[in-house]
Amino acid sequence: MRGMDLWAFPDATLNLVLVESGPTDEREYAFPCAPFQLVRVLRGETFRSANADGEVRLSRNGDCVAAELRPNHGKGWVQCVPVPSLASAIEALDPEASAYVG
């Protein structure tokens, strides 16, 4: 099973997290991001981030947002979420961003 989530921390940092679960293990890939970067994705720009585990490319494709994961070890994959779901998550994490989401 695969999924995408946003994790917010008390110090106001935010991570885009991609999770891949198998029958015996789970792997999480976390990439720091900011609400304004995610709003830009909703507006059609591409967000890229990389760390020691690999890289992610987040882009809008019609009514969904696709996160393309390219891990340094293993096979990559793409996870899509509906635009309204990501917009709601951004607004919940940063109420001020609601003025820019749309």
The 3D shape can be described as: globular
Euclidean distance between termini CA atoms = 30 Å
Major sheet strand order:
4-5-6-7
**Which consecutive residue ranges, at least 5 long each, have pLDDT under 50?**
none
Describe, in plain words, how this protein is organized in 3D.
The protein is an alpha+beta fold and 102 residues long. The protein has one domain (2-97). It is built from 2 helices and 7 strands. Strands 4-5-6-7 form a 4-stranded antiparallel sheet. Strands 1-2-3 form a 3-stranded antiparallel sheet. A hairpin with a 2-residue loop joins strand 5 (54-61) and strand 6. Helix 1 runs antiparallel to helix 2 (83-93). The chain is globular. It starts with a strand and ends in a 9-residue tail after the last helix. The mean pLDDT is 91.
Blueprint (SSEs and pairs):
Blueprint: E1 2-8, E2 14-21, E3 26-33, H1 35-42, E4 47-51, E5 54-61, E6 64-71, E7 77-82, H2 83-93
Antiparallel strand pairs: 1-2, 2-3, 4-5, 5-6, 6-7
Helix pairs in contact: 1-2
Structure summarized in a few sentences:
By secondary structure, the protein is α+β, with helices and mostly antiparallel strands. The protein contains 2 helices and 7 strands, in the order E-E-E-H-E-E-E-E-H.
What keywords describe this structure?
102 residues; alpha+beta; three-stranded antiparallel beta sheet; 7 strands; globular
